Amino acid sequence: MVKDGATTRGARLGDYELLARIAAGGMGEVFIARRRGPAGIEQRVALKTVLPHLADDPRWRDRFLEEMRFAAMLSHPHIVPVSELGWEDGRLFMAMALVEGVSLARLLRACRREGHLLSMPLVRLLATGLCEALQYAHQLRSPSGEAMGLVHRDVNPANILVSAQGAVLLGDFGIARPATSDTTHGGRAWGKYPYMPPEQLDGVRPLDARVDVFAASVTLYEALTGVSPFLRETDEATIQAIRGTELPDVTLLRPDVSPRVAEMLRRGAARERGLRLGSASDLLDGVLEGPVARPSELGALVERLCAAELAVFRRSEPVGGDVPVTRTLRPVSAGGTGGVTARWLGGARWPGVLGGLAVLAGGGWLFLPRGEAPAPVPVSSPETRAVQEAPRLAEVSPARPEESAPPEVAPRVPVAVKAVEARAAVPAPKAVEAIGFLTVDARPWAVVSVNGREVDRTPLARYPLPAGRHLVVFHNPTLGLTEQRTVQVESGKVATVRVDFAAP
């Protein structure tokens, strides 16, 4: 298998020439591909494939075909359009619109690295795209006019796509089903555990739109805070958190969120289905309190923070060998700030960015193991994120270039968000477990593991950990060097470690 961004010169699937692989998982791959027609007409698409050994497995083949059947029925500006299904040389493939952009999961990860949070207007823009797409799918009717009761079942940041133009699209209807169909495979619930309501975890039938309302509420909480509220260190602990706890009060991490919005998110993620908001429209009405960002502002943020991921879309022809991709960020100037120098990310009126319509899903389009969580920050319990500090207002200024490093393919757990002193009094939540923070860096760079679990690549800022001793391992695969440190993390404090692989 080739690296992400690397070319596959000469490879073809059906009428499509594969140009570059942009994402991969254990079950499939996504390529930028093109099909040439008469008179020099050229069409570029995102080509999603199932790996050959799985195409012969009826379980995965049927799931792929089911995704195509549902996707072919959907036509909405906030849903990724699908154009063709094919079979060539034992490989199933699906052609989709190519969206020049990244998944929301990748965008949030980039925000964490910069130590910032999305502005309220930007989150409202994301909520608009997500909720309108869900409401459309939930109300979909068959050609005969019969309500289908379609439920997505896998709403999470990896399946929400944001383009360089600021478009917000919902993708991966691979496990979408009518409400009355089976919710499990072999007794195991389909979906990503940190975003699944109790009834989906338990295999209850029928499911309804409130499954997606729960997942959308959790996703919007994560977009606001940078924290996945129910994600724990193990699947079992994550499931227990969903079954036994309520969504934390978002204002503890975001004091700028109004009590009404916090209440609507809480109701959207209610454990009891009967107490939950009944529709995606209800959720959207609850969070649309205030101005909504322009798409150009979201697009500018994608351009600024995800330049490395966007680079693969902007090569007109494939080149031989691996494609070098750096993490250098493109500076974006601010304009029209009216003298205000401190804003949440996305608050500035940045220049619009022109781009095509298509996607670097970063996992959303792939057949990944459904128990795996996409990559948000785990918390020890919904009440342990003691907020003595509130997130920092982002300065609107050119991005700081970073050292070049290999592109990231499938990050597991991104870093936490930087914080400074709260600007408003915030009541401290009940302490369940003492939490401290770990900040690490390495020269030139390293993959960081904490207590045997790979968490991210440096720099890693304010990663939350229980107070106590932790084993931190730094590994640079390019240099073939590894170092480890035992770090004492104290409650409410930041432990800082730096490793220099370049030192003599």
From TrEMBL:
Annotated region described as Disordered, given as residue ranges: 377-408
Highest taxon above the source species: Bacteria
Name recorded for this polypeptide: Serine/threonine protein kinase
Gene Ontology molecular function: ATP binding; protein serine/threonine kinase activity
Residues of the Protein kinase domain: 16-288
One matching Pfam family: Pkinase
Cited CDD domains: STKc_PknB_like
Keywords annotated in UniProt: ATP-binding, Kinase, Nucleotide-binding, Serine/threonine-protein kinase, Transferase
